[in-house]
Amino acid sequence: MIDKRELDQLFAQYGWPMDSREWPVLETVFTADATFTIAITGGDTIGPIEGRDAIVDFCSTTVNAQTDQRRHVITNVRVEREEGGVAVATAILTLVVVENGRLEVKSSGLYRTEVVEDAGALRFRSMHLTLDLPF
User: Does the predicted TM-score (pTM) go above 0.70?
Assistant: First the structure.
């Protein structure tokens, strides 16, 4: 059974480097064979991006090109179900952006993930993010 505190920490370990640009931290949250997809409601779908290295490369390239300061506020983390060593976990994203002295909520969305134990730690095996607005 997934420990809720460990799951909260996993989502925090994912969100932190997206805001701080500490990319080695992001490497720790995905399995080597993970997949990552972003679907924008009424718009484009990015991915699936396959493999931890490709995911970190995509995230770091995208974030490093942004000139604003973003904060990923991840809440309502919950486990939908667990079976066969895989937990399906969801969470809500509120993406807050500061630029030119102005604060705005840029987007919100839903994470749907598969979480597994890998080398003694919880990691995302898949992550699908549905955004309500472009990021």
Answer: yes
Instruction: Find the domain containing 109 and state its range.
Output: 4-131
In the chain, the number of structural domains is: 1
Residues 6+ apart with CB under 8 A from 72: 14, 15, 18, 19, 93, 95
Number of C-beta neighbours around residue 78 at 10 A: 11
Structure confidence by residue, pLDDT tens digits, 3-24: 899 999 999 999 999 999 999 9
Task: Report which of 35, 53, 37 is spatially closest to residue 45, judged by C-alpha positions.
Answer: 37
Q: What CATH number should be reported for the domain holding residue 89?
A: 3.10.450.50
